[in-house]
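wait is this the right file?? whatever heres the structure
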């Protein structure tokens, strides 16, 4: 009797397994789910319950053993329709005040109580972008470099929190849902794999090519924003979060709608206190302006939105001892002291180095070799020394003697005088101007191939160092003339890896002007400044001509580029080695001219200048409005000017000059009318 019953149970079980297999196949192999997520999850659950109740039940297709897919070996690269940006960080009240002040200035608002924020815990996981068409999950991408991600659809499909079909109302025709993939701490503890922390485990699992390993790691997903969308009719973030829930996503239970910095801080402290109780790692709170129309007005700076910021939690701390102080030489010649410490585990990561920032910092804190110190590690930031335990200092300890010569090339070092702050720089620098100081040269090469610059895959920091030691590279251009026959014979390299490297170098020869300007590593010219310069100069020829004509006037009018940057560019072009490098790079690269925003905007071929205070709109926003609509901003009244826009208390001299030249003088409202904007 019992046996007969068991037979029936087994039959029932196998039937369920067959259906489960059919669902999996339709979903994973054909990307065409047969049933709603709920039905799938219920079935899976029923199978697992049966297995638990009747241990004799087992099948190789069981969900307890199988994830149902085999991802391809190489992930396809796919461009994000809308880039995946990063966030600026805030660590204290002052940072928040500055953040809000900038927003108020940009919007020309005086009252901060008009600003409402969506405050969302910042999960320390891996972000992913999920593309849904007509409510069906079509493709999932990793963040990659923010512009281009990897197609990890199959891996993401194994995550039960990710709905394969959206439910509910108001589903847009197309939408990229973005959120965080992570692993819960309790699940992490159960893992046998040796990952330093849950984040690494999630990342490793997402990019796992062997499904046998992936299936062991229970990944979760929480949604929080979107990229590209078509027919999405939502006007604020909180409404969007609600919508996400309706569509079947998990959203964070701790999301709050908050006004005012005091309340943001209250919420921050409360959540920080609760942090240990929450079963996943959070490293701060993201504040986003709730109103989408205000977000749109604020726009972006470089890689981060003006309308959002990540308010980090205070870092993890630990005590250790300084074994030695080493001096590193950076790309711009900065001498950075680094404390080698007795390895300590801070928040799940083994730390053995801590930055001491610069010479002044060592002096200020009187940090010495042998000192017992408190080390702090906050998120991705390099660990640093907070304070010295003077009670534990040995009598024999001596003040640290900061080297006066570059430890790499022996050149003299200086502390520059800053004309603006009228102070000497805290940083000591090697006076060698580039490629003749080994350490500077290597760092320049690392920068050149880094993710934000040329982004050459397979040419990481360690390999750059190795190639340098083998005398394979000295200058950036050498990367395009590598001796692959030699590389083939280096330990760890084979035909395939050489072919891959060759391919990625070839692939990156096509480069935008802004990335090129950034990659050559001019001091004070980061990604944002490189973008600004590229937008103004438009062609690589114009950029190269800066040096030839020794004329930098064109850069004078760029908002955001000041004396410091211009002097640095001048200095760069005065250096003969740099000119040679530029010449060679020109031969090897195909530098794309800057694409015009929208060439055919309403203000096409028109030039504008502002004078006086505008109402309800800041100067910066007004300028960006002109540029968005294909107009050009100029900063002098001349024949080239088409419109002088006057606000309150305009500069009389400018107005008179414009009158003399018969330039059209218009009011702010006339300007807004040109753009078909009624009011702010
Ligand atoms: S919004 C432009 N919201 O933080 C908007 N990001 O440093 C950027 N993150 O790459 C994303 N929780 O991986 C947003 N509630 C949240 C988030 C969040 C975690 C991560 C995300 C992103 C990084 C930005």
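ok assuming it is, sequence goes like this
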């Amino acid at each position: 009797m019992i046996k007969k019953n068991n037979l029936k149970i087994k039959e029932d079980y196998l039937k369920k397994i067959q259906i489960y297999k059919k669902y999996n196949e339709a979903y994973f192999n054909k990307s065409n789910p047969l049933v709603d997520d709920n039905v799938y999850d219920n079935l899976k659950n029923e199978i697992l319950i049966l297995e638990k109740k009747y241990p004799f039940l087992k099948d190789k297709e069981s969900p307890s053993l199988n994830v149902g897919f085999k991802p391809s070996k190489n992930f396809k690269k796919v461009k994000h329709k809308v880039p995946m940006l990063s966030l600026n960080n805030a660590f204290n009240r002052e940072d928040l005040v500055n953040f809000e002040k900038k927003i108020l200035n940009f919007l020309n608002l005086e009252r901060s109580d008009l600003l409402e924020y969506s405050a969302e815990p910042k999960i320390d996981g891996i972000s992913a972008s999920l593309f849904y068409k007509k409510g069906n999950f079509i493709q999932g991408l990793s963040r990659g470099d923010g512009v281009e991600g990897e197609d990890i659809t199959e891996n993401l499909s194994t995550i039960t929190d990710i709905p394969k079909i959206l439910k509910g109302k108001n589903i847009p025709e197309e939408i990229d849902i973005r959120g965080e993939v992570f692993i819960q701490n309790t699940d992490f503890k159960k893992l046998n794999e040796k990952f330093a922390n849950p984040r690494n485990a999630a990342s490793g699992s997402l990019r796992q090519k062997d499904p046998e390993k992936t299936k062991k790691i229970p990944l979760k997903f929480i949604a929080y924003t979107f990229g590209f969308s078509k027919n999405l009719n939502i006007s604020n973030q909180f409404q969007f979060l609600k919508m996400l829930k309706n569509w079947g996503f998990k959203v964070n239970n701790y999301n709050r709608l908050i006004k005012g910095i005091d309340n943001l801080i209250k919420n921050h402290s409360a959540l920080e206190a609760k942090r240990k109780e929450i079963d996943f790692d959070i490293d701060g709170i993201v504040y986003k302006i709730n109103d989408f129309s205000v977000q749109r007005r604020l726009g972006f700076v470089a890689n981060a939105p003006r309308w959002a910021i990540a308010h980090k939690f205070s870092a993890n701390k630990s005590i250790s001892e300084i074994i030695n102080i080493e001096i590193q030489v950076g790309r711009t010649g900065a001498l950075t002291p680094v404390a080698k410490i007795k390895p300590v585990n801070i928040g799940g990561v083994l730390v053995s180095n801590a930055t001491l920032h610069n010479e002044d910092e060592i002096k200020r804190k009187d940090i010495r070799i042998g000192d017992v110190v408190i080390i702090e590690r906050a998120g991705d930031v390099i660990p640093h020394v907070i304070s010295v335990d003077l009670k534990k200092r040995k009598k024999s300890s001596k003040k640290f003697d900061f080297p006066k010569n570059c430890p790499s090339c022996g050149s003299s070092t200086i502390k520059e005088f800053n004309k603006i702050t009228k102070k000497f720089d805290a940083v000591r620098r090697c006076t060698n101007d580039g490629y003749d100081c080994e350490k500077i040269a290597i760092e320049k090469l690392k920068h050149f191939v880094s993710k934000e610059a040329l982004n050459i895959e397979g040419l990481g920091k360690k390999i750059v160092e190795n190639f340098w030691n083998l005398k394979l590279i000295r200058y950036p251009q050498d990367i395009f003339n590598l001796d692959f026959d030699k590389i083939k014979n280096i330990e760890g390299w084979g035909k395939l890896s050489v072919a891959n490297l060759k391919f990625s170098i070839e692939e990156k020869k096509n480069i935008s002007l802004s990335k090129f300007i950034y990659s050559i590593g001019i001091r004070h010219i980061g990604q944002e400044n490189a973008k600004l310069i590229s937008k103004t100069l438009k062609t690589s020829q114009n950029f190269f001509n800066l040096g030839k004509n020794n004329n930098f006037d064109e850069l004078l009018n760029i908002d955001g580029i000041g004396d410091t940057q211009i002097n640095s560019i001048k200095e760069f072009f005065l250096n003969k080695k740099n000119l040679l490098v530029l010449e060679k790079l020109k031969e090897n690269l195909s530098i794309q001219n800057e694409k015009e925003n929208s060439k055919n905007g309403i203000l096409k071929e028109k030039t504008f200048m502002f004078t006086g205070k505008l109402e309800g709109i800041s100067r910066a926003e007004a300028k960006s409005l002109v540029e968005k609509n294909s107009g050009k901003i100029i900063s002098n009244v001349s024949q080239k000017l088409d419109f002088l826009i006057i606000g309150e208390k305009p500069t009389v001299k400018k107005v008179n000059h414009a009158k003399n030249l018969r330039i059209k003088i218009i009011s702010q409202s006339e300007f807004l009318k040109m753009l078909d904007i009624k009011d702010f």
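Residues 85-87, 120, 122-123, 127, 180, 224-225, 286, 305, 308, 310 surround 2-(butylsulfanyl)adenosine (CB under 6 Å). so i think its the right one actually
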